[in-house]
Amino acid sequence: MARTIKIPTPVGPVTGRLTTPKEGSGVGVLLAHGAGAGQEHPWMIAMATRLARAGFTTMTFNYAYTAEGRKAPDRLPKLVEVHAAAAEKLARTVGDVVLAGKSMGGRVGGHVVAEGRFGAAGLVYLGYPLVALGKADARDTSHIANVDIPQLFVSGTRDSMGPNDRVKAVAASVPNGTFVAIESGDHSFVPLKKTGMTLDDSLDAAVGSISAWWDAQTGSGTRD
């Protein structure tokens, strides 16, 4: 069941959507959107729904620029402010909070933790945008190099913004990193039609990998 909530932030209020599982473990996942679309995008809704079915209390939110109807993302400090405030909001209703995000949202979550703005139990990057569009050089990932909480990198094998070999190397370079590939998936995990797979299949695989990863960290399942 999803309900709309208001999230106060230092830069003004934003809207969130809280989806509560029928049965869960008290673990929350904050799912942040990517640069190009907000929490209302079908991809975000589909992922949040699946996470809740897997037993995670799941919250999405809009960054300030999205809430204000602007297309260009805010600068990183403002994104971090809103992201941290959303995490604090979710933390009031659950025990552990995992920061997850699609592309930009995952990257910002890493900054939130690295800057000491929120004590997350884990980080999940759904399509880490290691290489910006039109660029060849990888983005700096030194901010997560010493983050010792579990970090899960989920990447499509066709992701041009997150080449698997390079993202896998980043996952191996952090203290507690795990890399999972989504077969034939692009940056949004959309597979090639010739594989016979669908986006639903890829999202199911992504959520399955998150559940298995979390179970491995805690030694217990999120589902009864």
SSE order and pairing:
Blueprint: E1 2-7, E2 14-19, E3 28-32, H1 42-53, E4 57-61, H2 64-67, H3 76-91, E5 97-102, H4 104-114, E6 122-126, E7 151-156, H5 164-173, E8 177-182, H6 199-218
Parallel strand pairs: 3-4, 3-5, 5-6, 6-7, 7-8
Antiparallel strand pairs: 1-2, 2-4
Helix pairs in contact: 1-6, 3-4
Helix content range = 25-40%
Can you count the beta strands? 8
| Shape by Cα distribution | globular
Report the C-alpha radius of gyration, rounded: 16 Å
Write the CATH homologous superfamily.
Answer: Alpha/Beta hydrolase fold, catalytic domain
Word description of this protein:
By secondary structure, the chain is α/β, with parallel strands linked by helices. It has one domain: Rossmann fold (3-Layer(aba) Sandwich). The protein contains six helices and eight strands. It has helices spanning 42-53, 64-67, 76-91, 104-114, 164-173, 199-218; strands at 2-7, 14-19, 28-32, 57-61, 97-102, 122-126, 151-156, 177-182. The protein has an eight-stranded mixed β-sheet, with helices on both faces. Helix 1 links the parallel strand 3 and strand 4. Helix 1 (42-53) crosses helix 6 and helix 3 crosses helix 4. The longest helix is centred in the C-terminal third of the chain and has 20 residues, at 199-218. The protein is globular and about 40 Å long. The mean pLDDT is 95.
